[in-house]
Structure formats: structure tokens, C-alpha cells
Amino acid sequence: MINSKESYSKFIKSEAKRLGFLSCGISKAGFLEKEAPRLENWLNNNYNGQMAYMANHFDKRLDPTLLVDDAKSVVSLLLNYYPSETQNPDSYKISKYAYGQDYHFVIREKLNEFLFSIQQNIGEVSGRAFVDSAPVLDKAWAAKSGLGWIGKNSNLLTQKTGSFYFIAELIIDLDLEYDHAVTDHCGSCTACLDACPTQAIVAPYVVDGSKCISYFTIELKDNIPMEMKGKFDDWAFGCDVCQDVCPWNRFSKPHDEPLLNANSELLSMSKKDWIEITEETFKKVFKDSPLKRSKFNGLQRNILFLE
């Protein structure tokens, strides 16, 4: 059995690598003081739009010790999803994270194995795994543990690999050695603010979620407001514009996770194919895909809006 904070931390980071994670950082579980006023202001400005769930569990979002009994450490993990191939240029655009299988299932399986391995090698450790499905401020914890800084587009950025990755956590009741935040390297760059088709980045580091193309095409259940007509740049599910223009994403390298490999049918589809897709075909081709989230009717609504 491993038996010191230093060796626990080394083991956890080596296991993260073995499981295919891009990087792993560790921070002390506790109240996120700096994030509290930011989150409050963001909600007061109604930047969450119809995402009412963002206002729920305010205290839990800021303090993981309220989510996990006796939580001591937040282990933050990044999983690369940058694809080696992209879509047919004559197509409605799908966000790159949705090219393969639904990441929730892919990552959850890795996290379950990760927690089991920690318990097998370190001993009685309790905790919970989180993949974008509970009130955890993923980006804040990843930044706190030194995995990158939160950029002007509000995404986590890293110098070596950009921002095309998923963020996940294990929150556990084990004291570990803690990492430190890195400095911001956005400098005077405003590429993301200048490129956003709907001006959703209302100020550096502040995104009005209710103006984001990803919000309109995935989260919004009502009709898309007509004042957005012609502003979507052919995005039918999600949007990658603020990441595509970010200079740090010049360093993105293709992932090596087979389950996230691009669906070949999705890559080859033309605009005509998207317009003509039937519900039966949609269910068959995208049965394990993040596209299921918008459902067939939601995708149809988005495509009609783009025409």
C-alpha cells in the first residue's frame, strides 16, 4: 500500500495518465471565494437564459465539501477530444466535441476505474466522480489546480494543448499535495471577442450564455429568436468559433481515445443529407452521440433556422 501524501499524489497522476487523461491537477477542497461574486453577478444578469439549473445549488457549486462528505481534495482531469478529421465543408456544422460517442459515458467509465484503482492501491478512500452533470465549477477547479487559465472566452486554456478537451473531477476524502494556479496568457488578444458571431462574449472573461450559439442550438427549448437569423454561420449543434480562432489552439493535437473517434457518417454528411435526414436514421446513426441531447425535433428546428 502507498502511504504518504507525496506518493498518493504521484500515484494518482500516473493513474490518470494510464487511463488516457491529457493531464491531472489537484487542489484542496474548500469554498471558492473568488468565484462566488462572479457567479452571483452572472446569474443576476440573467446570462444563464433558460438554463434555470445554473441557479440551483448555489452553495454546492462553490463548495465541494457540501457535495461530498469530508471532501479533502479535488482531482481535476482533462481529456482531449480534438479530432484528426473534420466535417465535409458543404455541411451544417457540428461542434467537434460531438463527433464521437457521448463523452459523459466515456469519461464516467474511466473515472469509476480511477476511483477503484485509488481504493485498491491507497486504501479506504471515499469520493464521487463528476462529468459535467452536477453543480461543480469544472473550469474554476481545473484552473485552481494549475491545468490552465480561464481565457477571455471563459474556456480553460493551456499553452501546450489549447482548449479542445473535456474537464472532469474526482472529489475525494484524501489529503494530497496540491498544485498551484498558472498565470493568464491571453495578453492583449481579443480574437475570440472579435469573432463571436452573436457577440456573446460581452466583455473579456464574461460570456452571456443566453446569446451563445451553443445555447440556442442545444439548451433553448423554445423557437430561436428571429433577430439571430443569419448570425449562426451554419452551426447546427454547438459552436467552436471562439476556440477555432484562439491562437493557443494552434497547438491542439488529435486525441487517441477510440470511443471519441468521429462518426464517419456525420463527417461525410452534406447540407442536403442533414435536411433530408429522417427520425429513424437520426436515431440509428446518433444513438450514442451527444446530438441526442437536442433530439431529432431540435436538430430539425436548428437546420430550418439556418436555411
From TrEMBL:
Its main location: cytoplasm. [4Fe-4S] cluster 2 binds at residues 196, 212, 239, 242. Its EC number is 1.17.99.6. It comes from Flavobacterium aquicola. Belongs to the QueG family. Its cofactor is [4Fe-4S] cluster; cob(II)alamin. This is Epoxyqueuosine reductase. The active site is at residue 132. Keywords: 4Fe-4S, Cobalamin, Cobalt, Cytoplasm, Iron, Iron-sulfur, Metal-binding, Oxidoreductase, Queuosine biosynthesis, tRNA processing. It catalyses: epoxyqueuosine(34) in tRNA + AH2 = queuosine(34) in tRNA + A + H2O. [4Fe-4S] cluster 1 binds at residues 186, 189, 192, 246.
